[in-house]
From TrEMBL:
The protein, known as: Uncharacterized protein
Residues annotated as transmembrane: none
Region spans: Disordered: 242-264
Signal sequence bounds: none
Chain ranges of the Bvu-2165-like IHF-HU-like DNA-binding domain: 12-126
Domain DUF4469: 135-234
Native source organism of the sequence: Bacteroides stercorirosoris
InterPro entries per the UniProt record, alphabetical: Bvu_2165-like_IHF-HU-DNA_bdg, DUF4469
CDD domains: Bvu_2165_C_like, HU_IHF_like
Start-end of Gly residues biased regions: 245-256
Species lineage: Bacteria, Pseudomonadati, Bacteroidota, Bacteroidia, Bacteroidales
Amino acid sequence: MANEIKYQINGQLADNTVTVDNKEDMILVPVSIGNADENRIIAELKAEDSGLREETIRHVFDLQKRVIKRLLMTGVSVNTGLYYASVSFRGIIENSTWNPAKNSIVVNFNVGADLREAIKQTTVGIIGEKGSAMYIGGVQDASTRALDASATAGRAFTLTGGRLKVAGTDPTVGITLTSSRDKETKVTEDLWVTNDPSKLTFIIPAELADGTYELKVTTQFSGNSKTLLKVPRSVTKTIYIGTAPSGGGSSSGGDGGIEENPLG
């Protein structure tokens, strides 16, 4: 039954900003149709007509999260079918002592068999060119050269794409990073390195802790240096300060990270 389910994701053609001299070299950028948080997922589960009440679904949802957290944080590798997850450590151990200031726990994710099967059952529709749309086509951490949306606090991070130049006087204009706890940090202009339409490089604020962040670029740049948009437009990208989930954060136009199965 599961194999009969078909999916489709649409993409738009965009210029490959890596090969500047080749104007016919195109990449495909996924068309986002929104984000799904916990409430959205629970609503979708209820819409499957399971016959379960919402509070029952939410209880099972919360119970699964609690169990998976307990397993991972006690050293058990988890295979949900959608993903593999395992724990590793970062930092040098000095004097055989764990130092939270220098050492950290990292959870690694790899695509599981169920999700791999879903990828096989997915068709891609190309619905034209992005044209004058603002988009992020690729990312790179200057510290590690990683292309998997991982970033390093205190080091440079580069976005490539289209219409990315930050310009305008609207209060919303700028670069922000919002943590999973909804704490927003604005990247001040003194941390900007390159501010071009196809390339935006800035320093990740050094005080930010490892974790998942929503990177948001807001601008009034129209593509014409003499005119600004009346209404600012934005583009977002999920990035990971520290280590990105393997197989789950690669950017369009990049090679992504090396994927390994932590369960062997």
